[in-house]
Specification:
The chain is of the alpha+beta class. It folds into 2 domains: 323 residues, Ribosomal Protein S5, domain 2; 177 residues, Alpha-Beta Plaits (2-Layer Sandwich), CATH 3.30.70. 39% of the residues lie in helices and 19% in strands. A hairpin with an 8-residue loop joins strand 3 and strand 4. The protein is globular, with a radius of gyration of 24 Å. The protein binds adenosine-5'-triphosphate (ATP) and (3R)-3-hydroxy-3-methyl-5-(phosphonooxy)pentanoic acid. The site of adenosine-5'-triphosphate has 18 residues, from helix 2, strand 6 and helix 5.
């Protein structure tokens, strides 16, 4: 049996803090999802041909997409004082920047770690890295298969093909890792952060497989993270920023690594020296290039972002929907920030007010977490599932639920004000109507547009009761103004996870399907 390493990362929902979280003064509430992205690394067997001792193959296949257009093959060659990574099938399948950069930066870091451990002989460290890529048995290299839970991509067509309506109750009928008909660029994503979860699981599975790091069996933001986990975080942030061509806030990578938490970003200057390096596909093994190493900049002690523990209270549920209004997602961030610059005084007022409401939401949700053990907690949630939160507050838990509802409305008001002032449809009127109607369903606390907003998605925070969920499902399936397709995902606290093949439903079948 060839050696195999499987790592998964959760998707994300930025419940509160969109735009604000780009600025270190403010933080955001990021909730990880139960839907995950998997990266499976397996040793390739030795080849029958006389394989070159100074070369290894690394192939990465997006398992649920057409394999002819979704397998990227690279060779890693040791040549003098360099390791060179080259894609061999670019003419046939094109590039996948997120994969190519993740591979290169992971190998670069792996090389630097080995060099550090071995006391500084560059070429020897390069040889050792190549040996690890080829595995104990001297195989051809590594085969990676990446697979995302169905939620990451729109499943409207797949449901229609099974004659199923786009309802929550239909989703379990889809095969896990359902095969999608078109290549990735022609596939609609749902906003769970496929590229961040891909990069995070990919770099971690490779570092782990090459014995560069060792991970705890599960990672959440509650315990203090290990140095290896923090290093994975900085590497994934770096690779993701390079592939995106910009330094975003990084909340998506942070939740892919640590799970649900309150996120405060790292200073852009942490990554500037690495982002400014000229692009290259080689790793120099010469010790005279010590100044251009990545490791010193990725050292966790240099990173000033923070993750503060936070989770949704027991008995509440996050429901998500992919809203396909048929619009392009324009570059909202640039326009909003332009407006913020132009009208600094007004924007600061809005930013501060919105931040206060976001932090109030965090305080109320944490207040509910503290009450989870109270004798009346479950009964109060049952009460809330039937009422529309009007009327007399019957307990402190009820007070908190009512306040959560009010605070979600305040946050939405601020986002609409931002929309109006900046001219960017963060919560456009179509979404307002959908959110208002959804918030009117008994047992729904409220909702909003996650992250940057727009027409793409909505989230609801509800009492986790089958009646409430099916009432939401009914409303959404009868909604005519836009097509609303629910996702299966719930909130989940965990971040990166080591997986075993048997424990993930459908994974074994998906890995053997070509
Ligand atoms: N299953 C996959 N296999 C390989 N690459 C993928 C896969 N899913 C996404 N990608 C990569 O991520 C890119 C999409 O990244 P982009 O940053 O545009 O979207 P995103 O913000 O992650 O989207 P969303 O949040 O909607 O998932 C794709 O072009 C592809 O390079
Ligand atoms: C607008 C912004 O704050 C959030 C974007 O979130 P999302 O990708 O729409 O979930 C940008 C960022 O944080 O990088």
């Amino acid at each position: 049996m060839p050696r195999q390493t499987i790592i998964s990362s959760p998707g994300k929902v930025l419940l509160a803090g969109g735009y604000l979280v780009l600025d270190r003064q403010f933080s955001g509430l990021v909730v990880a999802t139960s839907s995950r992205f998997y990266s499976c690394v397996t040793d390739l067997p030795p080849s029958d041909e006389i394989s070159s001792t100074n070369r290894a193959t690394i192939s990465v296949r997006a398992g649920q997409f057409p394999s002819t257009s979704s397998t990227w093959v690279y060779t890693l060659t040791l040549s003098g004082e360099e390791l060179v990574l080259e894609q061999t099938n670019e003419a046939e399948v094109g590039k996948n920047k997120f994969i190519a950069i993740s591979l290169l930066k992971t190998l670069e870091l792996a090389y630097e770690k080995i060099e550090q451990e071995q006391g500084g002989d560059g070429v020897k460290a390069g040889e050792e890295l190549l040996r690890r890529v080829k595995g104990e048995t001297g195989g051809q290299g590594l085969e990676v298969v990446v697979l995302a839970d169905n939620d990451f991509y729109s499943q409207r067509e797949q449901l229609a093909a099974l004659s199923l309506p786009p309802r929550l109750s239909s989703l379990p009928s889809l095969q896990p890792f359902t095969q999608l008909p078109r290549p990735i660029p022609q596939t609609n994503k749902t906003g769970l952060g496929s590229s961040a979860a891909l990069v995070t699981s990919l770099v971690t599975s490779l570092l782990s497989h090459l014995s560069i790091i060792s991970l705890p069996s599960s990672s959440t933001s509650s315990g203090s993270p290990s140095t290896d986990l923090l290093l994975v975080h900085s590497l994934a942030q770096y690779a993701h920023c390079l592939a995106q061509g910009k330094v975003g806030s990084g909340f998506d990578i942070s939740s892919a690594v640590f799970g649900t938490h309150i996120y405060r970003r790292f200073s852009r200057s942490v990554l500037t020296p690495l982002m400014d390096k000229p692009p290259t596909s080689t790793i120099s093994l010469s010790s005279s290039t010590a100044t251009s190493k990545a490791l010193p900049w990725l050292d966790p002690s240099e990173w000033d972002g923070s993750t503060t523990p936070f989770r949704l209270p027991k008995g509440l549920r996050l429901i998500l929907a992919d809203v396909d209004a048929g619009t392009d997602t324009p570059s909202f961030v640039g326009k909003v920030l332009e407006w913020r610059k132009r009208e600094a005084e007004k924007a600061t007022e809005v930013w501060k007010g919105l931040d206060k409401a976001n932090m109030q939401l965090e305080k109320l949700l944490s207040g509910l977490v503290e009450r989870e053990g109270d004798a009346d907690y479950d009964a109060t949630l049952r009460w809330a599932a039937e009422r529309k939160f009007e009327g007399h507050a019957e307990s402190e838990t009820a007070d908190l639920l009512i306040e959560v509802r009010a605070t979600l409305l305040v946050i939405r008001e601020y986002l609409r004000e931002m929309s109006e002032l900046s001219g960017v449809p963060i919560e456009p009127p179509e979404q307002t109507r959908l959110l208002d109607a959804s918030s009117d369903v008994p047992g729904v606390l409220g909702g909003g547009v996650p992250g940057a907003g727009g027409y793409d998605a909505i989230f609801l925070l509800t009492i986790d009761s089958p009646d409430v969920i099916s009432a939401v499902d009914d409303l959404w399936s009868s909604w005519t103004e836009m097509s609303v397709c629910p996702l299966l995902a719930k909130q989940s606290d965990g971040g990166l996870r080591i997986e075993s093949l048997e424990d993930v439903k459908g994974l074994k079948e998906a890995l053997t399907r070509v």
